[in-house]
Design a protein that fits this description.
This protein is mainly beta and about 190 residues long. The protein has two helices and ten strands. A hairpin with an 8-residue loop joins strand 4 and strand 5 (about 65-70).
Length: about 190
């Protein structure tokens, strides 16, 4: 059941059947953490939050499931205001209020009871590229405080900044960025 939920929750299909259950992301417990190498001296970390999105889960047919997620570019937090300002400048995102990073799944390969490789379209900085997330289903069940069906997932991927027009200062600042994703989603209704 866990691998079916993972497959269903992180797969996109042309049409979603009426049997699919809608799960909405819990923005207060969903984050994207990233890190990169700075001049060989350190690993620098940052985070995005403020997710919006939904997972349509069809327990009977994983191919009828989908996920669509978006987060504001300007939700980035690095712990240093000047760095955040630089990332939002024309050297990197050239971001303004309302700019979003989106992920829409396109395929899945279940690799174990609770694991899968998730392929999807990542759009960032007005560039869309196919990426593969290495995903793990952490847990499904009734949330003890919300008293609703809940699901939690983690995923990792390494992105190349320059693929998205964000390659300033590479290779001094690593072009590869390690990304860790953790999301919780609650059944709607």
């Amino acid at each position: 059941m866990k691998s079916l939920l993972l497959a269903a929750a992180l797969t996109t299909a042309a049409g979603v059947a009426a049997a699919a259950d809608k799960y909405v992301l819990d923005a207060s417990h969903s984050q994207v953490i990233f890190d990169y190498n700075h001049l060989g001296f350190s690993t620098t970390y940052g985070m995005f939050s403020g997710f919006e999105g939904e997972i349509m889960f069809d327990a009977d047919n994983a191919s009828n499931s989908s996920v669509n997620v978006a987060m504001p570019v300007m939700s980035m937090f690095t712990g240093w205001e000047k760095r955040e300002g630089h990332f939002m400048s024309g050297d990197f995102f050239g971001a303004s209020e309302g700019d979003m990073i989106t992920f829409n799944s396109t395929a899945i390969e279940v690799t174990g009871e609770n694991t899968a490789l998730i392929t999807g379209d990542l759009t960032m900085n007005d560039v869309t590229k196919s990426v593969v997330l290495d995903a793990v289903l952490n847990k499904t069940g009734t949330h003890p405080m919300a008293n609703k069906d809940w699901a939690g997932f983690d995923a990792t991927v390494t992105l190349t900044r320059s693929d998205f027009g964000l390659g300033a200062f590479a290779p001094a600042v690593s072009d590869d960025v390690n990304v860790r994703i953790s999301i919780e989603a609650m059944k709607a209704g």
